[in-house]
Amino acid sequence: MYVVEKLLKLYPDPKCTLKYNKPYELLIATILAAQSTDERVNKITPKLFKKYPSLEHIANADLEELEEDIKSVGFYKNKAKNIKETAKLLLEKYNGMLPDNIEELTTLKGVGRKTANVVMANIYGVPSVIVDTHCMRLSNRIGFVSSKDPDKIEIELRKIVPRDMYTVFSNLMVYHGRAVCKARKPKCNECVINNVCDFYSSQSDL
């Protein structure tokens, strides 16, 4: 795929940018990253996971104290509640393991398809289209999709992107979205894929 090939020359080893050591830590970090940035989440998770070193510790955490621990991310009250409930469910129903399919993952509190796909891609190695804000923005700008609905975007991208490139493509969208194709003031003239970008073409026509 042209876009992937061009971007891989800039970002040869695109990976998930959330820091974690255990599978459930990635799940929690991804829940925290909703409406926030990976950078901000990475600042609080080392201390958080040191304070709560197991799912049991998280499940038994004092809710108000947990809220305070994650207060720097958006919607921290809901996220604290969801994290506690998810930890309990993982212990009670899954023996502390993460489900290995989208259907069960999305039954966990605070887990939508984006978070589930992050787990499937990084924990289970299943090629997955991860539609975060960067993927949504770039896919629309390039012209791959015309939608603000993450589920619809995922379906459309699955038709366009080769399956073995799903995860790489998703990670590249994050890297390029942060470095070049920013939400505000995108660096279109520096972009290596501007020759296939609808947004750049529309700006050039003005």
Give a description of the structure:
- The protein is mainly alpha-helical.
- The chain contains 12 helices and no strands.
- Helix 5 (63-69) crosses helix 6 (76-94).
- The longest helix is centred in the middle third of the chain and has 19 residues, at 76-94.
- It is elongated.
- Its EC number is 4.2.99.18.
- It comes from Caldicellulosiruptor morganii.
Radius of gyration: 18 Å
Between the first and last Cα atoms, what is the distance in angstroms?
29 Å
Proportion of helical residues: 55-70%
The low-confidence parts are none
CATH class of the largest domain: Mainly Alpha
CATH superfamily of the largest domain: Hypothetical protein, domain 2
Mean pLDDT: 97
Structural class: mainly alpha
CATH architecture of the largest domain: Orthogonal Bundle
Total helices: the number is: 12
Number of domains: 2
Give the oligomeric state.
single chain
Biggest beta sheet attributes: none
- The helix-strand sequence is HHHHHHHHHHHH
Strand content: under 5%
Secondary structure: number of strands: 0
CATH topology of the largest domain: Endonuclease III, domain 1
What shape does the CA trace take? elongated
List keywords for this structure.
single chain, 206 residues, mainly alpha, Endonuclease Iii, domain 2, Endonuclease III, domain 1, iron-sulfur, glycosidase, Endouclease-III_FeS-bd_BS
Give a brief outline of the structure.
The chain has twelve helices and no strands.
Could you give the topology of this structure?
Blueprint: H1 2-10, H2 23-33, H3 38-51, H4 55-59, H5 63-69, H6 76-94, H7 102-105, H8 113-122, H9 133-142, H10 150-160, H11 166-179, H12 198-204
Helix pairs in contact: 1-11, 2-3, 2-6, 2-8, 5-6, 9-11
